[in-house]
Design a protein that fits this description.
This protein is α+β, with helices and mostly antiparallel strands. The chain is about 35% helix and about 20% strand. The structure holds histidyl-adenosine monophosphate. The site of histidyl-adenosine monophosphate (HAM) has 26 residues, from strand 6, strand 10, strand 11 and helix 12.
Length: about 450
């Protein structure tokens, strides 16, 4: 029956299922990058005393409305929000800081020695227009320091990001954009000044800016519409409203960065797209494309704990986009070590050989030898073809004769040579051939677990 006939008779071909736009599988090759980045992040986090936290992917929408700010792009346009069966508004987390602060409050972390230093490696969701480097589901690693205010902590965050990028071989691809947007008090004064400046000029503003003028005038400063850009150039500058304390804080941040030899560019236009920031803000920009696709960013958020119902508690943190990092690593030609290589392929013929193969495969794997067994029903020729595909250096071959004689054949795949070995000697022989240094000896069972 042709497709047309099928359609006429109402037999529909099932629609080809694909991931939704902007949402991607992570295939094994890219997982090698993810695994490597996670390793570097975990390593640097542990060295600096951070502990890992995972907050749920799904939270009450109110958490993000209150923390990120109702007039931000993220909350206005980009959240995956839906009603659950109980009629509550739920949202897939668009960023990590709000959930971490909620957890800090919910679990009484104020009682712990301060500051509390946490990190996460998690997927996040934003309904943005998908394009290269901008996805609807993306991975971030992020660090948060809650419970202490000191410019040295802000610098520690910036420096940690820099170190991680150095480990990944991409640090020299970015500039660090730095600004101080002041305390909430100075920001309030600045907001008032901005509203006063823009009132009376509404006709020159775009629709978006008109809507935001009274709610979030700071956002008018980074509008890309031509007339709005001109007005923003002439608008009052935050400099005039920065308090003495803000300036001192900022100066110290810069001094500490200098001390560590970290280069930065002061950028008074940098405000970041989330409302919870105070004082220091920064972004890591691609030297070529600038702020369009920052690879990481962060800042101080001294008001957020209080905003979510806690006592006034200072905090600072940052997050970086893992897909963007991977794009940079690939662009710079940086490969990552792969541990997915297979050392040994076990080929067998007949049930008796399969019975012997199963414990042998187990014994090899326990020794740290990456072993794949052809446990299907393929012919010996088909199995050897498969061994070639896995690109293994050695294949173990067992047929009825070998089972009867208690031996096994070790075939050197590159030389095409083979030899018979006694079954009880084969594990030791393989370990010798693969080399102790190449064994994957991590075994959860050997690590001393504690039991209370
Ligand atoms: P953010 O600047 O919104 O900050 O995101 C941090 C990083 O996540 C960005 O620099 C970018 O690399 C990546 N990213 C964001 N959106 C996307 C997307 N649609 N596709 C791919 N990558 C993306 C935050 O999220 C704050 N929570 C950071 C922070 C932590 N501030 C204080 N603590």
């Amino acid at each position: 029956m042709t497709d047309e006939n099928k359609a006429e008779e109402g037999v529909q071909k099932p629609r080809k299922l694909q991931t939704p736009p902007g949402i991607h599988d992570i295939l094994p090759k890219d997982h090698e990058y993810h695994t490597f980045i996670k390793k570097v992040v975990r390593h640097r986090a542990r060295q600096a005393g951070f502990r890992r936290i995972s907050t749920p992917i799904l939270e009450f929408t109110e958490l993000f409305d209150r923390s990120i700010g109702e007039d931000t792009d993220i909350v206005e346009k980009e959240m995956y929000t839906f009603e659950d069966k109980g009629g509550r508004s739920m949202t897939l987390k668009p960023e990590g800081t709000a959930g971490v602060v909620r957890a800090y409050l919910q679990h009484g972390m104020k009682q712990l020695p301060q500051p509390v230093e946490l990190y996460y490696i998690e997927p996040h969701f934003r309904y943005d227009r998908p394009q290269k480097g901008r996805y609807r589901m993306f991975w971030q690693f992020g660090f948060e320091i809650i419970g202490e205010s000191d410019p040295a902590l802000d610098v520690q965050c910036i420096f940690l990001t820099h170190k991680i990028f150095q480990d990944l071989g991409i640090a020299d691809r970015f500039t660090i954009q730095l600004n101080n947007i002041g305390s909430s008090k100075s920001r309030e004064k600045y907001r008032e000044a901005l509203v006063n400046y823009y009132v009376g000029k509404e006709r020159s503003l775009c629709e978006n800016c008109n809507a935001r003028l009274h709610k979030n005038p700071l956002r008018l400063l980074d509008c890309k519409e031509e007339d709005c850009v001109i007005l923003a150039e002439l608008a009052p500058k935050f400099e005039q409203f920065r308090s003495k304390e803000d300036t001192e804080f900022h100066t110290k941040v810069k001094e500490f960065l200098d001390e560590l030899g970290v280069k930065y560019e002061e950028n008074e236009k940098l405000v970041r797209g989330l409302d919870y920031y105070t004082q220091t803000v920064w972004e890591f920009w691609d030297k070529e494309t600038g702020g369009q696709k920052a690879v990481g960013g962060g800042g101080r958020f001294d008001g957020l704990v209080e905003l979510l119902g806690g006592e006034p508690t200072p905090a600072v943190g940052f997050a970086c986009g893992m897909e963007r990092i991977i794009l940079h690593m690939k662009d710079a030609g940086i490969g990552v070590p792969s541990k997915d290589n297979v050392h040994i392929f076990v080929a067998q013929l007949g049930d008796a050989a399969k019975k012997k193969a199963l414990p042998l495969i187990d014994a090899l794997r326990d020794k740290g030898v990456h072993t794949v067994g052809a446990l299907g029903k393929g012919s010996m020729k088909a199995q050897l073809r498969l061994a070639d595909k896995f690109n293994v250096p050695y294949t173990l071959i067992m047929g009825i004769t070998e089972v009867r004689e208690g031996t096994i054949i070790i075939r050197d795949m590159s030389k095409g040579q083979q030899k018979h070995v006694k079954m009880e000697k084969v594990v030791g022989e393989v370990v010798k051939l693969i080399g102790k240094d190449n064994l994957d000896t991590y075994s959860p069972g050997e690590i001393s677990l504690t039991k209370s």
